[in-house]
Specification:
Elements: E1 11-13, E2 30-32, E3 38-48, E4 52-62, E5 67-70, E6 75-82, E7 87-95, E8 101-107, H1 108-111, E9 129-132, E10 135-138, E11 143-150, E12 156-167, E13 170-182, E14 186-189, H2 196-204, E15 220-227, E16 238-246, E17 257-261, E18 274-277, E19 280-283, E20 287-295, E21 306-316, E22 320-330
């Protein structure tokens, strides 16, 4: 028989002890399963008739996995991708310890049915994000390279997922994946359209029929808010910026675009209250142009009043789109 081992320790006797006949042997099976790194020591006393017993010293050392993520970031942003195209980002895992490690990559969107309503999903049912390879082994002092693939099938600004890296069945790194998809190569960022629900709510208020009763092309709203109260004092010019970008796509022949901001109609009393710089321009593929919008508070403005004006932004890329620019300003004292 033997003395009991620590039930909470890393050593475990895996088979039963039994009587050993003369000139025979019995093999002991011992398991070492440390829960953390460090050196471990324990004594197991084997009792036998005659001389009393023998001490068996159990010694083990556990090495903590040290896996380095490159680039060292908790977010991977794919930016804007043309609908139907595929965008790829890469990362590496370096095994910096003296033992090989097992890895497994998990994407929350594959299993999180409850949270799916808060993220955009492909209409086709195919995963928006994928990672290859998703499991394997990294030998000591070796590097494994991974590709994260973004494949949206419809326009949305709210594609996201969470990627978890498990090393030896324990999570070590988490990446937030984000991406936006456009159905044309030109896009606008920097507006105050917070959610797709707000976008569609504003779009629902746009006319669907022209003056002659004929259907018109849907107009996309772009909301920009100004708050004069956030400035140093009444009368200060308040500035905002929009970014107009152009996506480089392998499936679209034209990879440059033009934009034009129409003048606010003179019939609007605030036609001179908002100014734009520039009012038109060309955007090259994989680049953006900044448009500065300035709000010049009129002296006759009512305290905490709302000043509003609308105009159009015409985007000419692979297709021509009209965006309704909604300008809303809150005045100070």
């Amino acid at each position: 028989m033997s003395s009991p081992l620590d039930p909470g320790g890393p050593f475990d006797l895996r088979n039963a002890l039994r009587s050993v006949p003369p000139s025979s042997t019995h093999t002991l099976s011992l398991k070492f399963s440390p829960s953390h790194g460090g050196q471990f020591y324990e004594v197991m006393r084997l009792s036998h008739s005659g001389s009393g017993g023998t001490d068996l010293r159990l010694i083990g050392e556990a090495v903590e996995p040290r896996v380095v993520l490159e680039p060292d970031s908790d977010r991977m942003d794919f930016g804007h991708t043309y609908t139907g195209d595929t965008s790829v980002r890469k990362f590496q895992l370096k095994n910096a310890c003296s033992l090989g490690v097992r890895y497994n990559i998990e994407l929350l969107g594959r299993n999180d049915v409850k949270g799916a309503k808060f993220r955009a999903a492909n209409y086709s049912g195919k995963p928006v994000f994928d990672c290859v390879p998703f499991q394997g082994r990294i030998e000591p002092e070796s590097v494994a390279e991974f590709q994260v693939i973004f494949s949206p099938d419809h326009q949305s600004a709210h594609y996201s997922d969470t990627l978890t890296i498990n090393i030896n069945d324990s999570p070590t790194h988490t990446l937030t994946l984000a991406g936006q998809a456009c159905s044309s190569i030109l896009y606008i960022t920097g507006s105050d359209n917070q959610t797709e629900a707000e976008f569609h709510s504003m779009a629902a208020g746009m006319p669907s029929l022209g003056p002659d009763g004929e259907p018109v092309e849907p107009v996309e709203p772009v909301l920009v808010l100004f708050d004069e109260r956030a400035g140093e004092g009444g009368g200060d010019v308040v500035k905002r910026e929009l970014e107009i970008g152009c996506i480089k796509s392998a499936t679209v022949k034209k990879n440059t675009g033009d934009f034009t901001i129409e003048a606010i109609p003179p019939s609007n009393p605030h036609s001179k209250t908002f100014t734009f710089d520039p009012t038109k321009g060309t955007v090259e593929a994989s680049s953006t142009k900044t448009v500065a919008i300035s709000f010049h508070p009129p002296q006759s403005a009512v305290k905490d009043g709302i000043i509003q004006a609308n105009t159009n932004i015409i985007l000419k890329g692979d297709v021509t789109r009209t965006c309704k620019l909604l300008l809303r300003a809150i005045t100070a004292d």
